[in-house]
Design goal:
473 residues, 43% strand, elongated
């Protein structure tokens, strides 16, 4: 009996010891899995930029998207974890206006704060992940996957233009003359000739000022912002098999005169395998942005202000010149008609009506061959606004990238087609050529270079060279 009792007691002790050891092992594994992780990416480049016919070659220091990330998670049960992700852009350069990456400078002021890149909290498991906060939309994810450029410069993205390429925005003198003569009615030839000359002179003076300002044509700024606030995002799948992402954002930018904006962004994709030779991958994304507003710190807002100011100045100047001939009332009326016609579409191109809806569709696909990866993207953007014509544009890009040992190389081409604003085809088509490469000292540290040339309407407009250091931690 004593021997049996001793044996049973020893067995219980062994089971208890095993249970304690198992619990300790599980707790240790969980402790190793849970916690807060500090990581990030420091990228800085020396950029040599030339805007032909505008400014001589200049040298800049570019941050190129440097950031510090905080992330962490807690295991609730084997198939459920709580997590958070906070990412903050870091400006390693303090120049007032970046011509390549708009992470620093006055134009980045609204996002110049902790968590300005992304900030999420959520739950994840085998069913996917659901998170709440603010961050990137799914359209941006497609671009990141299929754009092989290094991003030291503005890359070859087929959906957004980060570089400000100067292009004159001229008012239409012919339209101004036609509208004013129609409004004035039959006039004797000397008077109609004088009116035509006066209008052309007034519009010409405004255009000369716009030429000197070298403001950019911003038809390429119609894409929805890649960031969404007040968002809920769901992700399922990985780069092997079927994947899906969806994002909904509501209540953005509501003011006394502006209805709240909203965002709906979705992506579905499929890959035949994990990244390896023979992998085929494809993704389709659709995003809709309602009641988008113009960022007051953006170049788009600045250009819109310049155009409206030019229109008002031209109207006042023409009215002053016509008043001695036709009287103040008629002069004011004809001047308004003339400059409304001269500015039609051109001034509204950079504006946004209170009620607007932008829909962006983007398709990306890639295939990994034995000698590198080929990636293609194609997109279509359509913006509808109450009281204004639709604005549409098509674009596409093709890239090739390869990595041999620790040496990488890519080459790419992108085409932004002409924007169409109602029946007006904007002269803003762009061709962009880029090559780049990197040398990897380690998995975390590499030196990179990019050479980019861009043309607008076939005319060479910008060339820049960037040499940078990329360190991940």
């Amino acid at each position: 009996m004593n021997q049996q009792h001793t044996a049973r007691r020893a067995a219980r002790y062994s089971l208890c010891a095993l249970a304690v050891a198992s619990a300790l092992a599980s707790a240790a594994a969980q402790a190793a899995d849970d916690g807060v992780v500090l990581s990030g990416r420091m990228r800085v480049g020396i950029a040599s930029v030339e805007l032909e016919g505008v400014s001589p070659r200049s040298t800049y220091i570019e941050s190129a998207g440097s950031r510090i990330d905080l992330s962490g998670q807690e295991t609730i049960n084997p198939d459920l974890k709580a997590f958070f992700e906070v990412s903050t852009l870091v400006c390693l350069d303090e120049q007032p206006s970046s011509r390549i990456v708009a992470d620093c400078g006055p134009q980045a002021k609204p996002r110049n704060a902790f968590g300005n890149r992304e900030a999420w909290v959520g739950l994840r498991g085998s069913w996917g992940s659901m998170k709440f906060g603010r961050g990137f939309t799914t359209i941006r994810d497609i671009n990141e996957q299929y754009d092989n450029s290094l991003g030291l410069a503005s890359g070859l993205s087929a959906w957004v233009e980060n570089t400000l390429l100067p292009k004159n925005q001229r008012l239409d003198a012919d339209a101004a003359v036609t509208a004013a003569l129609a409004a004035a009615g039959p006039l004797p030839p000397p008077l109609s000739g004088a009116l035509s000359a006066g209008i052309r002179g007034a519009v010409g003076q405004i255009n000369a000022g716009l030429d000197a300002a070298q403001i950019p044509a911003l038809a390429r700024n119609i894409e929805p912002n890649i960031y969404a606030d007040n968002a809920v995002r769901y992700d399922y799948g990985d780069w092997d098999g079927l994947r899906f992402s969806g994002l909904v954002a509501v209540g953005e930018n509501k003011t006394a005169t502006q209805d709240a904006g909203s965002r709906l962004s979705a992506r579905i994709g499929y890959s035949t395998s994990k990244p390896a030779i023979g992998q085929f991958s494809i993704d389709l994304g659709v995003e809709q942005n309602r009641n988008q507003v113009v960022d007051p710190y953006s170049t788009q807002a600045a250009v819109n202000g310049i155009l409206i100011g030019a229109k008002n100045a031209g109207t006042a100047g023409l009215a002053a010149g016509l008043t001695p001939v036709v009287g103040a009332a008629t002069a004011n009326a004809l001047s308004k008609v003339a400059f409304d016609a001269a500015c039609k579409n051109r001034c509204e191109l950079t504006a946004l009506a209170a009620e607007n809806r932008t829909t962006h569709t983007l398709l990306g696909t890639s295939y990994i061959t034995p000698v590198g990866m080929i990636a293609v993207m194609a997109g279509h953007v359509n913006r509808q606004q109450t009281g204004l014509p639709d604005l549409t544009r098509n674009n596409w890009s093709v890239n090739y990238a390869t990595l041999i040992d620790n040496i990488g190389f890519y080459v790419g081409y992108r085409n932004n087609g002409r924007s169409k604003f109602g029946d007006w085809e904007v002269q803003d088509s762009e061709d962009k050529y880029s090559i780049g490469g990197e040398y990897r000292f380690t998995k975390r540290t590499r030196i990179q270079y990019e050479v980019v040339a861009a043309k607008i309407e076939g005319a060479s407009m910008a060339k820049y060279y960037v040499l940078g250091l990329d360190h991940r931690f």
